[in-house]
Amino acid sequence: MKPSRQGLLALAAVLLLLASACTARTPAPEPAGPSAYGAYVGYEPSDTARLAAFGTWLGGAAPRVGHVYLPGDRWSNIEGAPGYLESWAAWRRADAGRMFVLNVPMLERTEAHLPDSAVLAELRRGASGAYDGHFRALARRLTALGVPDTVVVLGWEMNGTTYTHRCAPDPAAWKAYWARIVRAMRSVPGQRFRFEFTPTRGRDAIPWPRCYPGDEVVDIIGMDAYDAPRGLSFTGQLEEPYGLRAHVRFARAHGKPFSYQEWGLYENGDNPAYMRAMLTWFAEQRPLYQSISDYCPHGVWGCRSHPKSAAVYRALMGADGP
Q1: What pLDDT is attached to residue 232?
Q2: Cα(32)–Cα(49) distance, rounded to whole angstroms?
Q3: How many C-beta neighbours within 10 Å does residue 82 have?
Q4: H helices within the chain, ranges in order?
């Protein structure tokens, strides 16, 4: 039977709705259980044992996140020359449930406090492809070490002023350079890297969404979040422009998991209220992972001046926690 004109119009409307559903951005899946956790306890080979000791002190599940940094003083180190990568790669390979998180500077002389004019020139050189080979070398090294699934935290805290790989001098060049690095590393056979975009909480030198290089080249949207500045409550940290709540909303709008690869105490000292609020936030929002910076002035196990916050951390994260 020949369909009526009304029937054809109804069918077209249904097909249009189906097409829209298929092309809509899929929300990032929430972790099935508690977020993976870890701590930065140092980067030396012996610090893999310190990470295990951190878990023993906590008394609950062992840390699943091993977190270290590549030095950014010269290109050979950004290429993965430091000898400690072997021990951390072995730690990761020993347990399929573990996650290796590696902070990678985008430029050498990364903490040399170069002027904006020098940073701008370097970003534009990177965006032109001048440094692609260094990142292909790093990708080959990580793959050869048996950690092709490393989480690469590339150019972290780009919205601030601390690092040479900062974004504000030329956001367009910064984003183009980030994309070049990701594509260079993804060109290495066997890699399965995940690339994490991680600003610091708040506005800082530039609103961090202006630095976002695009969904195609970002796998995780992180945030470095410390208890600062002095006197700012957790509610203030949550609701400030570009703060904790804006971060989670941004990640979910882009269909990406989110994380906290650096967090901890800071300018408000031993602050158990902050510690409780932050851990409650993690429990409610369920990031992919979170890793406390466990040294003074940020930590709980490695910083004896924070006993009250350490007690809260152990109560909520240890064997008796949720």
Answers
A1: 97
A2: 28
A3: 17
A4: 5-23, 47-58, 75-78, 84-93, 116-127, 132-144, 171-186, 234-239, 244-253, 272-285, 307-317
Give the burial class of 290: count Cβ atoms within 10 A of its Cβ; 0-12 exposed, 13-18 middle, 19 or more buried. buried
Instruction: Return the biggest CA–CA distance within the chain.
Output: 82
Beta strands 289-293 and 258-264, pairing class: parallel
Amino acid in position 173: A
Residue closest to 310 by CA, chosen among 301, 319, 320, 318 = 301
Q: Which two tokens stand for residue 116?
A: 């904006």
- Give, in degrees to the nearest 5, the angle at Cα 289 between 199 and 166: 15
Distance, CA of 174 to CA of 195 (rounded, Å): 15
Tell me what pLDDT residue 93 has: 98
Structure tokens at 54: 């951190």
Once rounded to an integer, what is the mean pLDDT over residues 108-130? 98
Q: How confident is the model over 24-56, as pLDDT tens digits?
A: 333 444 444 578 999 999 999 999 999 999 999
- Supply angle C-alpha 249, 251, 257, rounded to 5: 130
The pLDDT tens digits of the residues spanning 4-16 come to: 434 433 433 333 3
Q: Which amino acid is at 169?
A: P
Residue from 15, 53, 55 nearest 38 by CA: 55
- Average predicted confidence (pLDDT) for the chain: 91
Higher pLDDT, 15 or 156: 156
User: What does the alpha-carbon distance between residue 129 and residue 212 come to, in Å, rounded to a whole number?
Assistant: 19
Omega within 30 of 0 (cis) for the link into 229: yes
Higher pLDDT, 61 or 309: 309
pTM: 0.89
- CA-CA distance, 163 to 159, in Å (whole number)? 9
CA nearest 188: which of 132, 130, 140? 140
Q: What angle do CA 71, 39, 288 make, to 5 degrees?
A: 100
Interatomic CA distance for residues 24 and 307, integer angstroms: 48
Contact by Cβ (8 Å): 313, 307:
no
